[in-house]
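dumping this here so i dont lose it again. seq + smiles for flavin-adenine dinucleotide
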Amino acid sequence: MSGAVWSYSENESVSNEVASAAADVAKGASAEPVVLEIGAVRAGVRAPGAKLLLKGPATSDVPPEVAAEAIAKASKQLQPAAILIGATRYGREIASRLAVKLTVGCLSEVSKLSADGNALAGERNAFAGKVVAKVSCALPAIATVKVGYYAAVESAGTAVTESDVGQVNPLVKVVSREKKAAGAVDLRSAKVIVSAGRGVKKKEDLPMLEELAREMHGALGCSRPLSSDLGWLPEEHHIGLTGVTVKPDLYLALGISGQLQHTAGMKDSKVVAAVNTDKDAPIFQASDYGIVGDLYQIVPAIRKALASRR
Ligand SMILES: Cc1cc2nc3c(=O)[nH]c(=O)nc-3n(C[C@H](O)[C@H](O)[C@H](O)COP(=O)(O)OP(=O)(O)OC[C@H]3O[C@@H](n4cnc5c(N)ncnc54)[C@H](O)[C@@H]3O)c2cc1C
């Protein structure tokens, strides 16, 4: 087994987060953090140490089964101590395929990763974030790393070594690709999030909250019913257990009851403020500031106060 901790994500900014996790793990295991690239080196991917380019696939844009096969081939040759993959939908598929191919254990969606030379350990939320489970796995091991937990690695190492993994034939042929509509939000990097819940009575009222978010230099998020059930906002706005995990400086929850599945995705926000007509709404338990009131009165009042300061 080599003294290396590999990190990989198909998404450049997630790759930079996973590289930070690999640097932490490598410290404890007296190993080197190595950022994997498949097919081609990407300019936006930073590395705390060296990069390892897996040559064979013609491009970095490969389907998960190709990434898994390429990483498995290189891993059999070079025997890293651990392989960390960003827990995106794509990354989860790579990690599970890889664990089967290499017959090693896999920790899922973990943060606070560490290693002591014998085992890889981390923490993961269980029961909608009510419980933190400490999990570990004997090395060599794989882990998918919780997206949004680690700060992106700062350093940009330039050394690139190569490993030829040869031709990997995809099982699935990509017939065509369509870009997502423009205007997609990046809630993970937003400093302020104004979040809408079922207290918003109709879709036509959302622009009022969107305006507030803009005036606060923030982004608009929502609870799951608004995106998944009502379809008022695209999926990438939905925060929680099955949505995005966020930790802005300010999270303003408007008409959100605060069920565990929602708070699991925003409980690490620095400051939480909530507006709800129900004084017993659970969101107040998760808030630093609370207003018992009607968002249709409170939102215009906040906007007026902000306007008077300009
Ligand atoms: C497996 C599973 C996964 C889930 N994952 C997620 C997830 O990731 N994210 C998520 O959000 N949910 C998730 N849910 C759904 C979750 O359980 C809740 O149903 C959802 O979060 C409730 O959304 P809400 O707070 O907007 O609506 P409600 O629970 O209906 O709350 C609306 C709130 O608005 C208040 N209100 C009403 N009118 C006003 C007004 N005029 N002004 C101010 N307040 C008002 C009410 O008092 C109430 O508290 C999941 C559920 C399951 C089963």
